[in-house]
């Protein structure tokens, strides 16, 4: 079985309601007839309900940018899995570098979010990646291994399509500096081998690993041609329909 490429747009803290509605409608329209790849968008929480109506029935998938592990309760500022499911949102980005570095989310907290998402049937996009200092210090693979083993601790995977990983080197996010195809493939291959150690081989081979960090219309083809890169998690270039359309229609 082949891994179906996934192109995911993370809108971060952008878009008014009107902008979100228009952008989502444009994404739906450029995705018509696509069968060999999946497309997902992650608007801010405030626009999820609006965007859910726009994408309903289109095949474009909807994700939240974070998720809590509890069903309900005293968790000010958090969103429960059931609240997302009610909107038709069945994916969530977890452990994004901005959550880790700006808001101090630890590996343990990320693992808690992962467990919660899986328990309630939300497909996580589990993000990890090294900083520039860690790369320059020769720590890249050790950091990735620590983040992955901790983030996926006690996470059982039965259906490999219901877990997505995203390698996002921190130094490549929003900087215009993309990892080279070689650097990205090297990290992805390392992650694939780690998954093969952690999970049953047939499962590990099916888990998608996305690359994120300054993906744009000019570099997407070469990145996605790499054998262990199964899609892209796109920030800035997902906010403009022209660039996102070209990324969605990447050529391998
Ligand atoms: P950019 O594509 O803007 O570098 O952002 C990447 C990212 O963080 C996606 O989650």
Keywords:
252 residues; 11 helices; globular; TIM Barrel; binds 1,3-dihydroxyacetonephosphate; single chain; alpha/beta
Q: Report the count of strand segments.
A: 8
Quaternary state of the chains: single chain
* Cofactors, ions and other ligands in the entry: 1,3-dihydroxyacetonephosphate
Q: What's the helix count?
A: 11
Task: Output the structural class.
Answer: alpha/beta
Q: Report low-confidence residues grouped into runs of 5 or more.
A: none
Protein described:
This protein is of the alpha/beta class and 252 residues long. The chain has a single domain (6-248), classed as Aldolase class I (TIM Barrel), CATH 3.20.20. It is 40% helix and 15% strand. The chain contains eleven helices and eight strands. It has an eight-stranded parallel beta barrel, surrounded by five helices. Residues 10, 96, 168, 173-174, 212-215, 233-237 line the site of 1,3-dihydroxyacetonephosphate. 1,3-dihydroxyacetonephosphate (13P) binds at residues 10, 96, 168, 173-174, 212-215, 233-237.
Write the layout of secondary structure elements.
Elements: E1 6-10, H1 17-30, E2 38-42, H2 45-55, E3 61-64, H3 81-86, E4 91-94, H4 97-101, H5 107-119, E5 123-128, H6 132-136, H7 140-151, E6 164-167, H8 181-198, H9 201-204, E7 208-212, H10 220-224, E8 231-234, H11 241-248
Parallel strand pairs: 1-2, 1-8, 2-3, 3-4, 4-5, 5-6, 6-7, 7-8
Helix pairs in contact: 1-2, 1-11, 7-8
This protein binds 1,3-dihydroxyacetonephosphate.
The site of 1,3-dihydroxyacetonephosphate has 14 residues, from strand 8.
């Amino acid at each position: 079985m082949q891994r179906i490429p996934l192109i995911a747009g993370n809108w971060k803290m952008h878009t008014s309601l009107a902008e979100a509605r228009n952008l989502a409608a444009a994404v739906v329209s450029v995705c018509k007839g696509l069968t060999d790849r999946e497309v997902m968008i992650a608007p801010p929480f405030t626009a999820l309900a609006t965007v859910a109506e726009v994408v309903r029935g289109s095949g474009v998938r909807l994700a939240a940018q974070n998720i809590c592990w509890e069903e309900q309760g005293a968790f000010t500022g958090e969103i429960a899995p059931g609240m997302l499911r009610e909107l038709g949102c069945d994916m969530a980005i977890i452990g994004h570098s901005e959550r880790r570095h700006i808001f101090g989310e630890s590996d343990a907290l990320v693992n808690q979010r992962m467990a919660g998402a899986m328990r309630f049937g939300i497909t996580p996009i589990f993000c990890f990646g090294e900083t520039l200092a860690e790369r320059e210090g020769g720590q890249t693979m050790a950091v990735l291994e620590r983040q992955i083993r901790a983030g996926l601790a006690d996470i059982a995977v039965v259906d490999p399509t219901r877990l997505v990983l995203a390698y996002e080197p921190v130094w490549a996010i929003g900087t215009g500096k993309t990892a080279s195809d070689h650097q990205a493939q090297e990290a992805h291959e390392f992650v694939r081998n780690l998954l093969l150690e952690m999970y049953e081989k047939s499962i590990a081979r099916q888990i998608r690993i996305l690359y994120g960090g300054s993906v744009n219309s000019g570099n997407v083809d070469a990145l996605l041609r790499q054998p262990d890169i199964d899609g892209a998690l796109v920030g800035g270039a997902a906010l403009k329909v022209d660039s996102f359309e070209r990324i969605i229609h990447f050529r391998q």
